[in-house]
Amino acid sequence: MSRLQLKNVSKRWGSFVGVDNFDLDIADQEFLVLLGPSGCGKSTTMRMIAGLESVTEGEIWLGEKMVNKLDPKDRDISMVFQSYGLYPNLTVYENIRFPLRVRKVPKEQHREMVMKAIEMVELEEFMDRRPAELSGGQRQRVALGRAIVRKPTVFLMDEPLSNLDAKLRVSTRAQIKNLQSKLKVTTVYVTHDQIEAMTLAERVVVMNSGRIQQVGTPTDIYNDPANTFVASFIGSPAMNLVEGKLQDGLFKGPGIRVEGLPKHASGNVTLGFRAEDAEIVPSGGQIAAPMYSIELLGEASMITWRIGAGLVSVKTNKDYRAEIGDVVEARIPAEICHLFDTASGERIKT
Amino acid sequence: MSNPATKKPMPLVALSIAFIVIWLMIAAFPFLWTMWGSFKVEGDFFSRADWMNAITGPATQLQTGGRFTLEGYYGAWVEQAFWRNALNTLIVVVFTVLISLTLGTLGGYALARSGFKYTFWILMAALVFRAMPHVTLVSGYLLPFFELNIWGHLTTTIVVLVAINQPFTLWMLHSFFLSIPKDLDEAAMVDGCTRFQAFRLAVIPVMWPGVITTGLFSFLLAYNDFTVTAMLLSEENTTMVPQIDSFLGSTQEKGKVMYAVAAVVSAILPLFLLILFFQRQIVSGLTAGAVKG
Amino acid sequence: MPHKTFLAFIWPSLFAMILFIAIPIVSVGFQSLYVEHEQIMIEAENCGPFGCNSEVRVDREAMEQLREEQPAGRFHGLGTYTNPSHLAIDDIREIVATSENFGEIRNRIMNLPFYKALIFTLAYTFIVTPLVIVLGFIIAVVVNSIPNVLKGPVIFFSLLPMIVTPLVGSLVLFWMINSRGILGAALQSIFGDPTLSLTASPALTWVTLFVYGVWHSAPFAFVVFYAGLQTVPRDTLESAMVDGANRLERIRFVVIPYLLPLATFIGLMQLMDNFRIFEPIIGFSAAASATSLSYLIYNDLRLSDTPLFGSAAATSMLTIVGVLILLTPVLRRNWREFNRKPS
Q: Keywords on this record (chain B) (predicted)?
C-alpha cells in the first residue's frame, strides 16, 4: 500500500508562512494535482513530501511509516524537476542508471531495468548522448525515465512541462498520463497550468497563499468552485465575476440585472457565470452595455463588456458581427449563476 | 557586424589604437626589458654611459665574449642554490592549493546551499578576515609559534597560507556553487544519495571549471606571498620571493645584483605560462565575485 | 540543509579560519598590552693585574629565565599605544601647544613614525583606488572597441602587472627607474639634471609608489569592467541610439550606470588591498621616505635585533581598527540588503 497522508502539515520560515495546515489523504495509485499560482506553497508541499524541505509542524505518512525525519534517499520516492536536474556529465543511459547505482541495486539487473525505462520514454536512439546534446523535450523524457527506472512508492513531478513549448506540452502530457496508468504508482503533480491539472488529475487540490482552497475532481472544481479564487483560477476564460447587491432573488450590479436567484441570501454578493454558459441575444438580456471588444477565438467569438471595474465576457458563434461601442445584450439565466459572499469570497450554497 | 552601433569614425579608431599601444608598452615593456637584460652583465643592464648598452651589450661582449650571458642565472641557481628555494615554493604552493580547495569546496558548497541566517554572518566574517593585512595576523603567530617550536617549517607555513586564503577561497567557490542549479543535488538526493554523495557524484563533476579557476587564484596567492613566507620560514626553508629580497641585501657586491635580476625573471616565468594557458579562467575568476555583487 | 549537515561540511574551513585568523587577532590584542622585559643588569668585578674595575652588563641567565616564565613580556597596559612610536599622545599635545601655525603642526606630526605611516597608507589607498577605477574603465572601453583578433593578446599583456608577485613587479620597475636604469637615465637627460633620482626625494618616492599602485591594479579593474561591458544590454544601447544619443552620451547614460555596481565592487577590493600596501615599499627601498602601517609592523618584527612583539601588536590593533572603519559602509550595505530578502 502506498497511501500518502499529510496531517496538518505547515511550513514556516521565521514569520513567513509557506504552507498552512495542509491536511490531505492521497489514495494508492491516485493521480493528484496541486494547482495554484506561483508562490502559493504547492512546490513547498511537494518538497516536504520529498524530504527536501523540513516540516515545521504536522506529519507526513508514507504507507505505514511517518517519514518526517527521513532523508530523501530513505523515502523511496522519485521526482521529476522543473529544470530536470540531469547530470550534465553523464550520458542518457548513465543518467537513468544513476538511481540504481547509488541505491546499490545488483549490477546485473541494471541493463534490463534501464533499457525498459528507456523504451518507455522512447529514447533508444539517444542513449549515448549527453544532456547538452538533447532537445528540451528529450531532456524532459530523460528525467521521466530516471524517475521510473525503479518502482518507487510515490512519483513527484514539479512543473515538469513548464519548460516545453506549447505543442510538445500536449503530447508529453498524454505520455505522462499513459505512463502513470501503466505503472500504477501514486503520483503528486505540481502545476500552475489549470489545463494540465484538468486533463491529468483524478483529484485536484487548488492552493492559494499556503492554504488549500478546494479539493475535488476536475469536474467538481469546474462546476462548483468553492470560492471566488477557485472560480477565477479555473476555466479558460475564467469565470466572470461581478460585484453587486442581492435582494429577494434579484441581483443588481452596474449594467447587469439577474432575476430568479435564491431568496435565502441577501446583501453584498459576487455573481459568477461562465462565458460559455451565457448567450448573446438581440434584446431582453440581463446585460445590455456598449461592447468593449470582440475577439475571434477560432471555433467561437468572444464578446467583452466593461462592467463596473472589471471585464465580463460571453462566447457566441464565430460569425457574430458587431462594432466596438455598439450596445450588445446577453442572456444570463439564473441556473448558470453562482453566488459568492463578496466579503469572504466563499460560495453561497443554494 | 556592420551595424551603425559598432562603426566608428577614423580619428577615434586611430586614437584607440594609439592608446592601446601606449598601455601595452606600460604594461608589458618592463617585463620584456628585464628579461632581455637578465642575459647581460651588470655594466650593461645598469649602464651609466648609454642606455643603448643594455640592448647591444658591449660590456657583456667584453667580459664574457658573447652577446648574451647566463652568468646571472648560474650565480642565482647554482651558486646561491636558488633551486632549493624554487623547490620549497613548489612544495608550499602545491599543498596550499590542494588543501585550500578541499576545505573551500566543502565549505563553499555548504554556504551556497544552506538558507539559514548564519551563512550570512560567516560570509561577512570571511569578508572582514579577507581584509586583514596579513602582517597583522603574522604578528599574532610569531610568539606562539616560537613557543611551540613550530616556527620555520614548511608545514606551518602551508597551514597558515591555507587558513589565510580560506576567506577568499570560500567566497569564490560559494559564488560558483550558487550558479549550479539546486535541482542537480536535489535530484541526486531523491535518487538515493546522501548529501555528501550528491556533492561528490552530482555537483563536483559539474564544478570543475569553478574549482580550477579558484585553484589558479589560490596558486597566485600562495606563489606571490611575501609576508607569510618571509616571516615564518627559517633560512634553509625559505621560498623564492623572500629569497629574492635577501639577494637584494647582498647586492652591494658588484655583479650580485644580476643574481637578483635572474631570480626575478625566473620567478616571473611560471606566471607568464600561467596566463598563457589559463587566461580565460583568470578573467572569469576575476569577474565571478563581481557578478554576484 | 539541516544544521548538522552544514556543520559537517564547513567545520574544516571554519576551524582553520578561527584558529589562524580569529585567535591570532585576539592574541595580537593580548600581546599589545605587554612590552619586552627590561634588561636585568648585574655588576661584575673585573680584576686584572692592574686592579679591579666594576662593569655593568646584561645578566643573560636571568633574562633567559624571565623570558621563559613570561614569554609575552611584562604587562604594560595601554602604554604601548600612547608611546611616541604609536599614537604619541604626549608628543601631539606638545606639538599643538608649542607650534605656531598649522603648517608646523603638520610637519612635526609627519615626523612621528606612526602618523607618517598612517598618512602614507591613507594617501595611497584613496589616491590609487579612484585612479585604478578610472584607468581600468578607459582601457576596458577602448579594448572593447578594437578588432576581436587583437583582444586576446592585449588582455594577455594587460594581465601581467597584476598577476606578477608584487615584490617582483616593484623590483622590475625599481631597476628601470633607478638612476642607472633606462627610465631613470632618460628622466635625467630630459630634465638635464644628472643628480635627479626618483627615490631621493620623499615627494617623488610617493608619486613613484602611487604610479606603481595604479600600474599593478589597473588590469584588475580593466578585466572586471571589460567583462561587464560584454553584458551591457544591447536593447538599451540600441534604444538610446534610436533616441538620438551620440557615442559619449551612450557611455554616459547607459554604460556607466550599468557598470556602477562593478565600480563599487572594484573599489571595495582595492580599498582592502591598498590599505595593506607593503611589498612595494621593500621593492623600491622606499622606507626612508614612505612607510605604511604594514611596513611598521614588519619592521618591528623583522628588522630589529629582538622582535618587538608589543610594539608590532599595538600597530596591528590600530591597523585592524582602520580596516574595520574602512569596511563599515560595506558591511552596513550588505546587512540592509540581507534584511530585505525574505526567508
A: Cell membrane, Membrane, Transmembrane, Transmembrane helix, Transport
Cβ contacts of C237-243, under 8 Å, gap ≥ 24: C237/B5, C238/B5, C241/B4, C241/B5
Give the C-alpha separation, A246 to A343, whole Å.
14
The stretch C119-128 carries a mean pLDDT of: 94
- DSSP character string of B80-135: S-HHHHHHHHHHHHHHHHHHHHHHHHHHHHHHHH--SHHHHHHHHHHHHHHHS-HH
* Cβ separation C342–A54 shorter than 8 A: no
Averaged pLDDT for residues A295-320: 90
User: What CATH number labels A238-341?
Assistant: 2.40.50.140
Query: How far, in Å, CA of B89 to CA of B219, rounded?
Result: 11
CB contact under 8 A, A50 and B190: yes
Q: What percent of chain A has pLDDT over 90?
A: 62
* Chain A CB contacts of B191 below 8 Å: 73, 78, 98-99, 102-103, 146
B229, B92 contact by CB (below 8 A): yes
Contact C311, C285 (CB under 8 A): no
Cis before B205? omega within 30: no
Contact call for B186 and A82, based on CB within 8 A:
no
**CA B271 to chain CA mean position, Å:** 7
pLDDT tens for each residue of A247-269: 888 998 888 889 888 888 888 99
CB atoms within 10 A of CB B208: 11
Nearest by CB: B124 against C20, C157, C334: C334
Evaluate whether B188 touches A98 at the Cβ level (below 8 Å): yes
**Does the CA dihedral A209-A210-A216-A217 come out positive or negative?**
positive
Q: What is the pLDDT of residue B44?
A: 76
Band (C68; pLDDT cuts 50, 70, 90): confident
- pLDDT digit string, tens, across residues A271-291: 999 999 999 998 888 888 899
For position B291, what pLDDT does the model report?
Answer: 45
- Please indicate whether, in this complex, the C-beta atoms of C343 and A14 are within 8 angstroms of each other: yes
Kindly report the nearest CA distance between residue C208 and chain B, in angstroms: 14
How far apart CA A249 and CA B263 sit, in angstroms, is: 100
Choose among C23, C28, C272: nearest Cβ to B130: C272
pTM: 0.85
Whether residue B292 has pLDDT greater than 50 = no
* B34 contacts in chain C (CB < 8 Å): 172, 175-176
- Closest CB to B192 among A85, A88, A102: A102
Give the pLDDT of residue B253: 59
| Chain B residues touching residue A160 (CB < 8 angstroms) | none
Give the β-pairing of C41-48 and C34-35: unpaired
Write down the domain spans for chain C.
77-111, 114-291
**How far apart are the C-alpha atoms of B112 and B182, rounded to whole Å?**
9
Domain ranges of chain A: 4-230, 238-341
Residues in chain C with CB shorter than 8 Å from the CB of A16 are 342-343
Mean pLDDT over B146-159 rounds to 90
pLDDT computed for residue B290 by the predictor: 52
Architecture of the domain defined by C114-291: Orthogonal Bundle (1.10)
Taking the Cβ of residue B186 and every Cβ of chain A, the question of whether any pair is shorter than 8 Å is answered with: yes
Say if the Cβ atoms of C342 and A16 lie within 8 Å.
yes
d(CA B195, CA B210): 20
Reported as a pLDDT band with limits 50, 70 and 90, residue A313 is very high
Q: What percentage of chain C carries pLDDT values higher than 70?
A: 94
Domains (ranges, CATH) in chain B?
A: 10-75 (no CATH), 81-292 (1.10.3720.10)
∠C303-C307-C311 over CA atoms, to 5°? Answer: 100
Determine the topology of domain A4-230 in CATH.
Rossmann fold (3.40.50)
Residues of C within 8 A of B224 (CB-CB) are 164-166
What are the chain A neighbours of C2 within 8 Å (beta carbons)?
Answer: 54
